[in-house]
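Researcher: Quick test of sequence recovery. Tokens follow.
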């Protein structure tokens, strides 16, 4: 079965040595996608709704802005890969603070996934490699 790695120019650069997605047959596996702004090289100032002081403490924090941008980044990677939002079949969501953020995340998820409803798993983790509060790992089909 053929495989191909995919990099999307309109998504934030990966923070390690991995592609945005990998196609295997008619399946598309997305690497973890965060809310950083595409084209931003900085791992903190490129996060929507986030401003940190010099010690890494929050000056501003807008989780809704991070959710909206992570969904946009996933959509951009899907489209650059020849797939689409409606082709998502499985979404794993990593939140760094379930108690604080789940309600907002769940509300926005229902908005973005009103028609397309992939399987979903949401887990809380201690941290992510950059100062983001959400990351998605997705599987989609390619028509």
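Model:
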């Amino acid at each position: 079965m053929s495989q191909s790695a995919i990099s999307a120019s309109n998504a934030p650069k990966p923070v390690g040595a991995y592609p945005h997605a990998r196609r295997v047959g008619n399946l598309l596996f997305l690497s973890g996608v965060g809310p950083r702004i595409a084209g931003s090289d900085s791992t903190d100032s490129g996060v929507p709704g986030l401003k940190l002081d010099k010690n890494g403490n929050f000056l501003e924090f807008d989780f809704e802005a991070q959710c909206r941008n992570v969904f946009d980044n996933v959509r951009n990677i899907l489209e650059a890969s020849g797939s689409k939002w409606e082709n998502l079949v499985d979404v794993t969501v990593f939140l760094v603070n379930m108690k604080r953020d789940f309600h907002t995340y769940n509300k926005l998820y229902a908005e973005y996934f009103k028609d397309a409803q992939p399987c979903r798993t949401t887990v809380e983790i201690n941290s992510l490699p950059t100062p983001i509060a959400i990351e998605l790992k997705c599987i989609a089909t390619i028509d």
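The chain is about 25% helix and 30% strand.
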